[in-house]
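Sequence only, no structure available. Ideas?
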Amino acid sequence: MHEQPLEGPLVGEDGSVGYRGVTACQAVGISYRQLDYWARTSLVVPSIRDAEGSGTQRLYSFRDLVVLKVVKRLLDAGVSLQNIRRAIETLRSRGVDDLAEITLISDGTTVYECRSPEEVVDLLQGGQGVFGIAIGGAFKEIQGSLSHLPAEPAVPHPVGESSSPVEGDELAARRARRRAG
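Reply:
I predicted one. Tokens follow.
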């Protein structure tokens, strides 16, 4: 029987690798107090081994560390721990067990799950679908629409000078004729 190191990965009999709390904290950039609180409140529970009384140590998988890092990044972005917890609870209630498999985006207030380029869900509004507008796509669409429509120079007209009607603008042409005559 060989002795496992105090830090770094712990290798199980089946070759699986786990990380103790101290290592998880260093890898993710959080305090041990945060890690302990998140585990005790079931925000991120270690999937390999949870603490079972005094003397036992939690053992986190690589995927657990990814989820811990996502929680930290959301906190760093300004999302409250309460909102992060609600978002994760919404995902879990829908059967999403592996949070490392999804894409989350945030505006610093709410958390969205990006299911596909066309589908984004607000996790704090009970999974309500939202839509995004790709500005680049709108830009290209307007460029294409304008390519066959008339334009005019953006030169200001001196005050009192009448502007010539735009080609195809019947109302402007009538006004110009009325003024002239």
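The radius of gyration is 29 Å.
Hope that gets you unstuck.
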